[in-house]
Each structure stands twice: as structure tokens, then as C-alpha cells.
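Tutorial, part two.
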Amino acid sequence: MVSAILVLGVLVAIFVGVNIGGSSTGIAWGPAVGAGAIGKTAAAVLMTVFVFLGGWTVGRNVIATMGEDIVPPEIFTLPVAVVVLFFIGLGMLVANVFGVPVPTSMTAVGAIAGLGVATDSLDWVTMGRIVSWWVVTPIIAFWIGGVVGRYVYPHLDRYFRIEQSEGPLLVFDRSGAIPRPARGPGTTRQEFLTTILIVVIACYMAYGAGASNVANAVAPLVGSGALAIGGYEGADVGIVVGAVAISIGGFTIARRTMEAVGNDLTELPLLAALIVAVTAASITTFLSAIGIPISLVMATVMTIVGLGWGRASRTASIIGLARGEEELELSMNVLTEEPSEEVPKIGEEEPEDVLDANDLVRPDAVARFVAFWIIGPSASAGLSFAFFFLVPV
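Running the prediction step on this input gives:
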């Protein structure tokens, strides 16, 4: 007979997964929806498929880390797992209230770490390995974006700039007995192929989201052994539960986040959005493959910042910046300026050629994101520690 506490645990896990689906679906599919490449319902369907694939293949490594390696599995009794999931959900709720992209993986690890410290069972080697990657990841994402923006992006922008036409991308040709899809009246071949590429990359991001985020919803329950039902391994059942919960979020609350993220990111050209998506998804998938819980949001935000910084830095030489002889101004539309006939050499571009009044790297916004990447896990760890210290398990 299924216990009431197990039902409660699954319901809390679903609640966490739905919130994860709401935020990660917006990050993965916002650019594609904002560009008109795909509808919200179709995006949610594809999100469901690729989140499951990411969780089933690479995501089980993250589940093992969070459910077995940070603290011993025997610490994860079913009631403990439910409480940990509660603190994960609470951390996500606080971040959502303040309108900050949720660092779900970091919040989840913080709650588990608080349990480990309170019970004197935390594996400090594993925790140190995870935190070191949390420190290194934003630096890696920033510098990949910076290098691409400084040395590669202007050349790509000149030859592969993506222009969007008015009207529908596809129409149905009804001249024959069977209607068949055809390019819209103003749709060019390049635009059509680019749209397909946008959808493919969004699927890749959804895969990365599944690889990193399914564990956040179910790892405590898997670690407790509560999902080892009917002869199936707990991880297998957990992946199904987590993927279903994330898909529910994708079909419901993500409709708003896809629109919000899509409208924000369409200020960036599609070429820049593609570069950001590939970079963030690759970093997230790689770290998930080696069992590191990581935030897709972190890699995405820092790649955008790095790309804008790199593009703006072409107005100055590295030596001049290092010596403080040249100053660097950053602007939102540094990535949206029309490409010139020839790409000027580094240091020869004038700031007014690439900058205007809107800020890309808003120091206050970046500081808010980074602050919550620190505050979120710290708060969940602190609350978890306090609870399990006062209520010994």
C-alpha cells in the first residue's frame, strides 16, 4: 500500500518540477517562440520529449550525485526527502517573487548540503568539486562569449546575418489534391533554413535542461529509495516523474515565460541568440554528463554578458584595456548594429559605430543575478541546516 508520506513527497516533487518547467522552458524556447519559428504548444511538446531524453541519458548522473554522493543514501529517509524538496520549492518561490531566473540546481544542492552539515554526513570532497564548478562555469561562459564577440561575431554577422520577413514563415499550398507546406510569400531560403536551425538548437537546450534539472525535482526521493517501485530502479521512475512534472510546467506557466523571454531576447539578433543557446546548452550538458548539478540560467546569462562585452571591446586593444589607457563602454545594441561592408580591425572601430543609449551589460541587473546565485543556495542551505539541526533525523 502506498503511504501518505510518499504521496506527499511525489506531490512536492511535481510542484518543484512544474516550477522548473515554467522557467527552463522559457529559457530554452523563448527565442524560437519570440522569433515566430514555432508556437507555444509545439514548443511545449518538443520540450517534453527532449527533457525526458536529457534526463534519461545524462541526467541520471546528476541524480546519482545529488541522491547518493553529497550525503549517504541512508540519511535520505522518506520524510527527510520530503522536507528537502520543500526547501527546494521554497527557494524557487523566493527567487520567482523577486523576478530573478531561478538557479534551481544550486538551490537544490544547497538544501541537501544543509542536511549533510546538520547530520555531520556531508561529503566535503564532492561538495567542493560541485562548488568549484559553480565558480568556474560563469567565467567559462563569459569568456567563450567574449572571445566569440571580439574575434568571430562581426565576421559571422556580416556573412550570416539573419533577416526576418513579414508574414507567415510557412503556408499550405492547396493547388493539389493534398495540401503541402510551402515557404511564405516573403520567406527566403536562408530564413527558412535558419528557422529550422533555431528549432533544432532549442531542442538541444531542452535536452540540456532535462540533463540538469530532472534531478532537482526527484533526487531526494530517489536517494530515499522510495521510488524503487515494482522492481524498477528508483532513478528510472524518478526520471519519468520529473520529466512529466517539467512538461506540465511547459504547457502551463511556461506560456508566460516563453513570451517574456522571447520578447526580451528578440532585442538580440537571432544570430546572437543562437550562439548563446549553443554555448549554454553545451556547458550544461557537459557538466551534467560528469555529474555536476549546474544552472542553465547561469551559463545563458553569462554568455550573453560575455558576447556583448566581447563585441564592444573591439573598439580597444587588449593592451590598452589592461594598462587602463583605453576605456570600454557597453551597450545593449552593440550586437544589433548593421554589419559594415568590411569588418574593421580591432582597435579601429569607433565607439559610436557599435554603441547606443541602451545598456546590454546593466551592472545592477548582473549584480542582482549573481547575488541570487549566492543568496539562493545559501538560504536553502541555511534553512535546511536549521531545520535538521533542531529536528534530528
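The first helix runs from residue 4 to 34. In part three we will examine how such features are distributed along the chain.
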